[in-house]
């Protein structure tokens, strides 16, 4: 367990570093971006992009920040992280032939599996909250103001969105012996959903509608989560984790 904790801490710090590396220049670029919104909106090749720029033009630094941090970075990078964290949880041990050793530990299967899910969930979500906490001091450097509390609500919504994806990947890991197949399926599904989001006639069928710019603007302004969104996301994670318990209880090395 000590080794797994170290790996989790390392993954958390690495993901946080990458997010922060992308966040800092994006925030500092806002003054120049603000002067070019109308031009960029006119040049945007897709209606979806025009809509996003319209939201940013209406809400200013709030819309720009949630677009850059949550929709652009955390959602896309988070899908990759969810795939890489969930896929090897069980299937990785099966591929290496070490699953029997794990099952021989003096722990119940339920506890063992929940600990693995929890470590991955922490490595996935903690970077979102840590990087979000740096936004107010960053925007202060460009003479803007954003409040920490509503940003934390946005981080919570982002975490629920990614946890649903992570939990589905975790279930796949409990059912499979090939972690690369699980990771590939999660990444392919994420790319497919993002591609649908960019198509005007199919955008409303994309799961990324649950994690786009107007969603985070509403969360920021309302200082609360939308029950019509967070309840299905939380339920997806709960059901997937429950199915993972059932699958792992029947798993043989």
Report on the structure:
The chain is mostly helical and 253 residues long. It has one domain (2-249). The chain is built from 13 helices and no strands. The chain has helices at residues 2-28, 30-34, 37-43, 47-59, 61-86, 91-96, 99-103, 109-132, 135-140, 148-175, 179-198, 213-222, 227-249. Helix 1 (2-28) runs parallel beside helix 8, helix 8 runs antiparallel to helix 10 and helix 10 crosses helix 11. The longest helix has 28 residues, at 148-175. It is elongated, with a radius of gyration of 19 Å. The two termini are 20 Å apart.
Main β-sheet description = none
End-to-end separation in angstroms reads: 20 Å
Low-pLDDT stretches are none
Please tell me what the overall shape is: elongated
Query: What is the average of the pLDDT values?
Result: 91
Q: How big a fraction of the residues is strand?
A: under 5%
SSE topology string = HHHHHHHHHHHHH
Specify Rg, calculated over alpha carbons: 19 Å
Structural class: mainly alpha
Number of domains: 1
Q: What is the total tally of β strands?
A: 0
Helix content: over 70%
**Tally of helical runs:** 13
Please give a quick description of this structure.
The chain has 253 residues and is mostly helical. Helices cover 79% and strands 0% of the residues. The radius of gyration is 19 Å and the shape is elongated.
